[in-house]
TrEMBL record:
The chain crosses the membrane at residues 12-37, 131-154. One of its GO terms (molecular function) is phosphorelay sensor kinase activity. InterPro entries: HAMP_dom, HATPase_C_sf, HATPase_dom, His_kinase_dom, HisK_dim/P_dom, HisK_dim/P_sf, Sig_transdc_His_kin-like_C, TCS_sensor_his_kinase. This is histidine kinase. It catalyses: ATP + protein L-histidine = ADP + protein N-phospho-L-histidine. The keyword Cytoplasm does not apply. The lineage of its organism: Bacteria, Pseudomonadati, Pseudomonadota, Gammaproteobacteria, Pseudomonadales. It comes from Pseudomonas panipatensis. It comes from the Bacteria.
Amino acid sequence: MEYKQSLSRRIVFAFVLMTALVGGLFSVGIVGVVHVVEERLISHDLGGEMDRIINEDLLSGRGPRLDPGMRFFISDGMGVYAMPPALQRLEEGFHEVFDGELSFHALVRDSYGRRFVLLQDQSDFEAREQILYAAVVTGYVVSLAFAGLLGWLLSRKVMEPVARLARQVRHRDQLLDLAPPLAPDYASDEVGELASAFDYAMGKLHDVLNREKLFTSDVSHELRTPLMVIASSCELLAEDASLGPRARNQVARIAAASEEMRDLVQTFLMLARARTKDLGIAPQAGVLSVADDLVAQWREPIEAKGLALIYQPDAVPAGQFNAAFLRSVMSNLLRNAMHYTDSGHIRLQLCDSGFVIEDTGEGIPEEHRERMFQPFVRGASQRGEGLGLGLSLVKRICAAAGWEVSLHPAQPHGCRFEVRLASVA
């Protein structure tokens, strides 16, 4: 069951509801007791008066001796004792009757073949009874208001440690490495158990983050040495005059791949750290230079597949950008286009806001486009040896750099990736 109200409001509502139920039952009980007591006591008194009048006064031939406020009627009586038609319809027993603004308790009895009715004025009693009912209703309303106030005060007291824990948890990410445990600040109750559970979860998360930081640092550090060896070896081989054109071409490809791998290591390291200041001091490059290098790198494998690579540097975005990020985004989009295009062309177009990469492949259905930027999600016809991380990496890089990447259908078929850049320089 989903609760959309806050816990404090639920506590107040519980107080008011409990008071409404208990107070309502108590008020109904008071009214019921008043009616029962009224009927039993007054009917007992009227019954005694009725017996005295019938068995003593009437049998002795005297007129009924009535207390002030009483009236007596006989079914066959005459004069003041003549029974009004309204009383003749009453059944035997105790009743309440009204005559204008006056109210009476009535006792009806059939005896000796005649019907007798004894009335007792209860106007004062009825007024006091109405005052009692008004007091009950007022007390009920006041108790609801008091329950709401008390519930509000108690909810604030009860929720105070929960709210304090929430504030500590909300700001804990800012002091992840320095924040002390939370559980010692709370009693051994439910809130203390919650704080202990959070300390345990944060400890596990802290361990995972430390392992990830160490992993990225170690990978970055350990890969730089072999990459430098490869790069220096390529430089030495390039200076060897005995190498033929084909060998020199292979050495150039090895050097380019080494440079790309070094950029990727730097990209992954900056993504893992996710620090804006690291992005600002990273090597910068223009879009045109990066695009020229990648077009030269990807033209041969794209054309070897029978596709045409169309390069249109119509407009160049102004400013300098994170070189590793820009190279990774553009390279992944070109690789993705090559894998999922069997015929036609791949177009790389530079524009004032960034660049566009368009292909004539099979395209992506509209309902699957947003999912394509999620990790380990691949197209319907999976190509290449990838794991579905290329577009996810593109999305993460753009989010870290403040760029925007969007996917649209190309005409007549295929995909159109548009990247809007924001300069960090």
